[in-house]
Amino acid sequence: MQEQRRSRRQHRPIEVSFEFFPPKTPEMEKSLWEAISRLAPLHPKFVSVTYGAGGSTRERTHATVARILNETDIKPAAHLTCVGATRAEVDEVARAYWDVGVRHIVALRGDPQGGLGGAYAPTPGGYAFSTDLVAGLRAIGDFEISVSAYPEKHPESKSFEQDIEVLRRKIDAGATRAITQFFFDNDIYFRFLDRVRAAGITIPIVPGVTAVQNFKQTANFARRAGASVPEWLAERFEGLDDDPATRRLIAAAVAAEQVFDLLDRGVDQFHFYTMNRADLVYAVCHLLGVRAAPDEAATA
Ligand code: FAD
């Protein structure tokens, strides 16, 4: 008899994590907390909070991470970048996290100060690269450190070999998990995974999954970030610019198809880029079998 697809079997130990961005306005703060409250009962491994370009959200990221720590039982991870700050300033941010009890940092170089796609120049007196930041964090405290990985390679890297070498250096410096840039074609992820494993790297390379809430926005961002947008994906959203309700259903179907295929092919850890909205991610987690305990289940 043919073996049942992994995604159709029960009781899978699946680990999920959720990424949020710090809110700018009281309204955004309210919707972020609605999203966190809805997703918290799913017991994510951690939730992470991004750090605005050039440290522009330093206080807001800190405040959001601290509130998660104080008001939920979820473990927060704070993103931290090298751009636009001296080592002393970055160290101060990291120490402040350590002092309030944050034990997980997502350590990144950050985008060039001129914005995504511009030329990168290290900040004078700052950590030049993510590799340096990881080493610096290690010297401050026994943080769990996650870093980025790029299944389609980082746009500034000359080759996959360079990217994988950088990943190795981040691990040597103390990183224990990589979270990938989002991708839509799972073969791209598995080809990258093959390269990484062939290079002897064994840490989890957790796929970053984005639920496409707004196709045009996602496609625009993907192009700048060096992530490809397949023609078939564009076709699925074609003609729906003025039909948000159908777009949401399509987005859920697309995300479900992607995670089921990843699951069938052996993946059991997922990082969701939530865009601070819970519904779609909650539904996809439900499909994955990630559920709240009956007495914790949130209502929509
Ligand atoms: P890195 O791994 O540091 O690589 C960037 C480039 O530098 C590559 O081309 C690499 O080859 C090169 N490089 C690295 N180390 C060296 C070295 N020692 N010597 C020479 N070259 C080197 N951005 C934000 O501003 N805030 C966020 O919160 C944020 N969160 C993110 C989360 C995830 C999961 C991902 C995938 C990205 C995130 N980004 C964030 C975007 C990220 O900052 C940008 O993509 C940035 O351009 C690269 O930083 P990095 O740490 O991802 O890349």
Structure explained in plain terms:
This protein is of the alpha/beta class. The chain has a single domain (6-295), classed as TIM Barrel (Alpha-Beta Barrel). The chain has 10 helices and 9 strands. The protein has helices spanning 26-39, 58-71, 87-100, 130-140, 160-173, 186-198, 215-225, 231-237, 244-264, 279-288, and strands at 15-20, 46-49, 76-81, 104-108, 144-149, 177-180, 205-206, 208-210, 269-273. The chain has a 9-stranded parallel β-sheet, with helices on one face. Helix 1 (26-39) links the parallel strand 1 (15-20) and strand 2. The longest helix has 21 residues, at 244-264. Flavin-adenine dinucleotide binds next to strand 3, strand 4, helix 4 and helix 5. Flavin-adenine dinucleotide binds at residues 50-51, 53, 79, 81, 106, 108-111, 129-131, 148, 154, 156-157, 162-163, 166, 179, 181, 208.
The level of helicity is 40-55%
Distance between the termini: 40 Å
What's the alpha carbon Rg, rounded to whole Å?
19 Å
The structure class reads alpha/beta
Oligomer: single chain
What's the CATH topology label?
Answer: TIM Barrel
**Spatial ordering of strands, largest sheet:** 7-6-5-4-3-2-1-9-8
CATH top-level class? Alpha Beta
Report on the biggest sheet.
Answer: 9 strands, parallel
Principal-axes shape call: globular
